[in-house]
Amino acid sequence: MHFVEVLKCWEDCKSLENYDSLPTVINTYIQSSNARINLTSADDVKSLNSLITAGFCDEYCAATQNVIIDLIIFFGNNIQTRYQLLTYFSILKPLIYGVISDSIICDKIKLLEALQLYTENLHNLDVPIEPILFSRALNYIIRIIHSNDDLLEPALGILANLSHFSNLVKQTLTKKEDFEALRSCLLRIISSDQVSRSALVFSVAVRFHLWNSADKFFEGLNAHRTLQVLFNVLLNGDVSVCGLCAGELLGDLSSAEPEFFTSILTR
């Protein structure tokens, strides 16, 4: 099935003002395709922009929003297509506005997972991000981390991705007490016996990128625990976002602070 068939269905649905057939067509495409976008005309580009926007528009029902988010996640799992959507279609803007909006009725966890996916490795993709947009996303994600356990894991994943942009984080969290509140919250999460492995890895990544290994968390017994957690994730063959984050964090630690490893391995 070709993607232009999805776009044709979308245009037909709009003209009829009936979107019942859209989930079936999109799900069929997801099951049968390789996540490549081949657009042949300016009309196709316009139609795709319209389809993406609809996923974050309160004019459409939850079923329509959810299946469009499914399609966006499907595309995002292919790095080439993800980059295409980030650059040519500026998908970060509608994604962030969708996440922070109270009027969007689609699955919130799914929406956060989409934003986590599209901010993954963003610092290496040379994709510009507007400071105001960044600040809105960061403030919203931090509020979730402070108050919503159900959304904690994807929110921490997003924060781990955004923490690579430490200068933008510092421009947003201008008060020292805001930084300390976040630091204390992350410590509480890391210290919890109930925390998931992914949430633990994401929290450690945030602390490293925002406070570096000068953070007391990377000293003494804490350093041993950090390495143990990260290596266990990799040794278990975890190739999820958590595993990728753990591998990248180990690389960052060894590059930025080689004595961090030396002090542990020589004991």
UniProtKB/TrEMBL annotation:
<dbReference type="InterPro" id="IPR016024">
    <property type="entry name" value="ARM-type_fold"/>
</dbReference>
<dbReference type="InterPro" id="IPR048701">
    <property type="entry name" value="CIP2A_N"/>
</dbReference>
<protein>
    <submittedName>
        <fullName>Uncharacterized protein</fullName>
    </submittedName>
</protein>
<dbReference type="Pfam" id="PF21044">
    <property type="entry name" value="CIP2A_N"/>
</dbReference>
<dbReference type="InterPro" id="IPR000225">
    <property type="entry name" value="Armadillo"/>
</dbReference>
